[in-house]
């Protein structure tokens, strides 16, 4: 199943991206200071988003090292708090596959997650979860 989504640790090129953020768009150089103001309550929005998804859909955790997807039975050990997130390098970022939606959700830099999808309907499917935790999305 891994090869349906990834080539050489990279998301396959046929996937489109939707960015998930605390803000409605890119901050730009003039507003980068807002990154310094993000605390535990803002960071927890991402964890709450993933929790909601895990209650509604079967999530799979991605292991690029073994090139396997593992069913997530308990999401909690896979979530990091704000201080842990500040110490992570990219190799430790969260990656989840939701096969029923044919999409991937990956953690990225600067308080951003990426929704990778093949069908645009996935955005509409995910949107209510984002609204519930007060996160924004944009292309």
Would you identify the regions where 5 or more consecutive residues have pLDDT less than 50?
A: none
Secondary-structure element string:
EEEHEEHEEEHE
Q: Main sheet: which strands, in order across?
A: 5-4-6-7-8-3-9
β-strand amount:
25-35%
Mean pLDDT metric: 91
Distance, first to last CA: 27 Å
Number of helices: 3
Give me the count of strands: 9
Radius of gyration: 14 Å
Helix/strand/pairing category = alpha+beta
The biggest beta sheet reads: 7 strands, antiparallel
Question: What general form does the structure show?
Answer: globular
Into which percent range does the helicity of residues fall?
25-40%
Account of the protein in words:
The chain contains three helices and nine strands. The chain has 139 residues and is of the alpha+beta class. The strands form two sheets. It has a seven-stranded antiparallel sheet, with helices on one face. It is globular. The mean pLDDT is 91.
Secondary-structure topology with pairs:
Elements lengths: L5 E2 L2 E2 L4 E6 L18 H17 L3 E4 L4 E4 L10 H6 L7 E4 L4 E6 L3 E6 L3 H13 L2 E3 L1
Antiparallel strand pairs: 1-2, 3-8, 3-9, 4-5, 4-6, 6-7, 7-8
């Amino acid at each position: 199943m891994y090869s349906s989504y990834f080539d050489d640790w990279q998301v396959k090129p046929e996937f489109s991206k939707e960015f998930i953020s605390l803000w409605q768009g890119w901050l730009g150089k003039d507003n980068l200071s807002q990154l310094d103001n993000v605390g535990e309550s803002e960071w927890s929005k991402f964890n709450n988003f993933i929790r909601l998804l895990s209650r509604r859909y079967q999530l799979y955790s991605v292991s690029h090292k073994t090139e396997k997807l593992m069913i997530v039975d308990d999401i909690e050990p896979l979530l990091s708090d704000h201080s842990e997130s500040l110490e992570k390098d990219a190799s430790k970022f969260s990656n989840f596959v939701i096969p029923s939606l044919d999409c991937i959700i990956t953690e990225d830099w600067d308080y951003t997650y990426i929704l990778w999808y093949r069908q645009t309907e996935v955005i509409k499917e995910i949107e209510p979860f984002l609204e519930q935790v007060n996160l924004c999305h944009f292309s």
